[in-house]
Amino acid sequence: MPSPLRLHPDRFLPPDPAERTAARAVYGETAGLPIVSPHGHVDPALLSENRPFPEPTGLLITPDHYVFRMLHSRAVDLDALGIPRADGSRAEVDPRVVWRTFCAHWHLFAGTPTRAWLEYVLHELFGVRETPSIETADQLYDQIAERLASPEYQPRALFDRFGIETLATTDAATAPLDHHAALADDDWNTGPAGPRVIPTFRPDALTQVSRPDWPALAARLGELAGGAVEDYASFIAALRHRRADFRALGAVAADHGAATPQTGRLPDAERDALFARALAGEATEADEAAFTAHMLMAFAQMSAEDGLVMQLHVGCFRNHDAPLFERFGADKGADVPLATEFTRSLRPLLSEFGSAPGFRLIAFTLDESTYARELAPLAGHYPGLVLGPAWWFHDSVEGMLRYRERTTETAGFYNTAGFNDDTRAFCSIPARHDLARRVDAHYLGRLVARHQLSLTEAREIGRALAYDLPRQAYRLDARESGPDVRTDGVHVHTDGVAS
Asked: Angle 38-41-47 (CA atoms, 0-180°, nearest 5)?
């Protein structure tokens, strides 16, 4: 007998009656706010081409590594799920069979944020009222497929239905940006605050000088920038040119991923010798670590000059499963958190830029132990440092609560960037924002019940976390109102950072 799929109105709110009453009021303030998604990985072609989604698995399973990572952990081969291989091929598999496999393993997601997101998507978007199972799989597949065939479920229609105000994609520094250029000329993409879909500059591959294909990547950068990359100076000039290309299409941020947050400039002679080795295809892993630390300083300098917000994502061992990486490539769920140190590692960058007008760094980590010990104290001091939300493995009910508990007493709420969804799975965007708003309401409701905050303050803070702070942290406000302003719910003051 199929079990019903229901969403309780008080899900993820605190069980204590006094806390829950306050949390309901805070969530009521934030539930209907527009979605600001300033950091994510949706393919811009999805919205540029606006083609109908082909079938349910191509929307809900294939692009979502949270889903197929869990299935892989129970020995479901990625080929059996139709996941593209590293060479661009994929196994011939019936999407309906993939869907049945997913439904047969629904129980694996119990207690996970993935379960919360999927239930929201199935219930709220597709009207599903029965829990996925092997018995209901075909019925649910047909129900979802029927809806996807209608104009109301094309990507742009869903974008509007989700209430997305701004969506930032993440694009390699060597991306041609064709789809963003097409969107820039499309009236659909123009909102009251500027372009609704914008790129984000991500140059990570160009700092990974030990990659076998790095010389080819450097050459491609030069082609796009209109001049050959022959030395470090021409490399920097090409990066500046590409940043300007991104900014012209609405970009407000750059995104940088590294294993550690180590920063520090290399002496000129050492830097130039390292760069020559890289161009010759002879750079080592030690070279790459030193060059990455140096380039984080160089990118901070660029951000201070051109105003692109600098995002730093660290603390991840990428592609831990070497055989799987060989078969399927990167971003296939085989990444694992690493212990990380910020206080000493970021000191060179923050000493030079942490109080500099025009500079903003949003820091993310997968090492929760650094929240209270390092990141919150740093953000509580440096005007140019803002804390990114609980990221990736910690974008969960308990993970988001731990983040608030460990950062608020030192950094407060207004030295954080609110929430961003960081997802490739387009339909999970409203689900992730709804969960974050409920968890923040949970935390704020506890503070109200303890008489630490008034309900009026909690509602103001809830709105800030859901909407105002992401816009301010990423300088989206500057597109319509000029100088950057930070608000704490009581006072409004300039923060000394030029927009």
From this structure: 90
Residue 480 confidence class, pLDDT cut points 50, 70, 90: low
Band of residue 113 on the pLDDT scale cut at 50, 70, 90: very high
Q: Tell me the β-bridge partners of 493.
A: 486
Instruction: Specify the length of the chain in residues.
Output: 499
Structure token pair of residue 103: 């439904």
Asked whether the beta carbons of 167 and 159 are under 8 A apart, the reply is yes
How far is Cα 247 from Cα 240, in angstroms, rounded to an integer? 11
How many CB atoms are closer than 10 A to CB 249? Answer: 18
Instruction: State what percent of residues in the chain have pLDDT above 90.
Output: 93
Q: How far apart are CA 231 and CA 389, in angstroms?
A: 37
β strands within 170-226, DSSP E = 171-172, 190-191, 194-195, 197-198, 201-202
Closest residue by Cα to residue 447 from 26, 9, 10, 11: 26
CATH topology of domain 162-481: TIM Barrel (3.20.20)
Decide: 228 and 279 in contact? Cβ < 8 Å: no
Instruction: Tell me the two tokens of residue 471.
Output: 């816009």
| Separation of alpha carbons 306 and 479, rounded Å | 14
Comparing CA positions, the residue from 464, 470, 422, 430 lying closest to residue 444 is: 464
CATH 3.20.20.140 in the chain, residue ranges: 162-481
Q: Which residues pair with 202 in a beta bridge?
A: 172
Both tokens of 73, joined, read: 């952990």
Each residue of 370-399: pLDDT tens digit?
A: 999 999 999 999 999 999 999 999 999 999
Whole-number pLDDT of residue 477: 83
Architecture of domain 52-153: Orthogonal Bundle (1.10)
CB atoms within 10 A of CB 126: 20
C-alpha closest to that of 208 among 293, 141, 125: 293
Q: Does residue 479 contact residue 193 with C-beta atoms inside 8 Å?
A: yes
SS (HEC) of 431-460: HHHHHHHHHHHHHHHHHHHCCCCCHHHHHH
CATH 1.10.2020.10 range(s) for the chain read 52-153
The DSSP letter of residue 53 is: P
Tokens standing for residue 69: 């990572």
